[in-house]
Amino acid sequence: MLQIYTGKGKGKTTAAIGLAIRSLGAGHRVFFLQFMKSLAYSEQKILKEFAPRLQLRTTGKPFFVAAEGMLSDEEKAKWGNDVVVFPPGEPPRDYVEMIAEEFNAAKKEILAMKPELLVLDEVNVALFFGLISREEIEALLNELPETTEVVCTGRNAPQWLLDRADLITEMKEIRHYYIKGVEARRGIEN
Fold first, then answer.
1. Contact 46/20 with Cβ under 8 angstroms?
2. Is residue 74 included in any domain, yes or no?
3. In whole angstroms, what is the distance from residue 79 CA to residue 83 CA?
């Protein structure tokens, strides 16, 4: 089965982590591949402790990427040097190459492990920004054993992936304390 957790609301990665814990509890092997994330998030510390039954791998740099027109001048100023803004369809070449290299290494590990659960965390966003191609993700999905459940998280899930999915959950933001200026909190958002 292919599950998609998408939408603008909070909780997509959190839901995938919950499913990973449930899967581990059932004696399954889990591979958790995070796109566009470095080892800077609290959940990574605990997930790593489940090795070797859970393998965690990250692909990304410690900066945010955004296509031109996505951020206001105020947002760009707030992010400062922590954001790389690029023309739509032209993501930073070094970032694309780094993700391709790390994805190819992860793919070999995934196919060798044959996990019962594969989480592709933030893959929807990586696809949206053109950091990884549809062909690369489809090739992985096509090579997985039928016994592998796949979860793809992130905003802006592409239509082709939604069409292929068996389960789609859309997280909808109704209210968020970010609008009151509350920054990401350790143990809650990061």
1. no
2. no
3. 6
Q: Is residue 78 part of a domain?
A: no
Q: What is the Cα–Cα distance from 111 to 102, expressed in whole angstroms?
A: 14
CA distance 142 to 66: 30
Q: Domain for residue 82, yes or no?
A: no
Please tell me the total count of domains within the chain: 1
Place of tokens 């068996």: 166
- Which two three-digit tokens encode residue 183? 């920054």
| DSSP annotation of 145 | -
CA 64 – CA 50 distance, rounded (Å) = 28
Residue numbers of the domain that contains 111? 2-60+92-180
Q: What is the pTM of this model?
A: 0.90
Conformational region of residue 33, where left means phi above 0, alpha means psi within -120 to 50, and beta covers everything else: beta
Query: Would you say 52 and 30 are in contact if contact means Cβ atoms under 8 Å apart?
Result: no
- Local confidence band at 63 (pLDDT 50, 70, 90 cut-offs): low
* pLDDT given for residue 39 in this prediction: 67
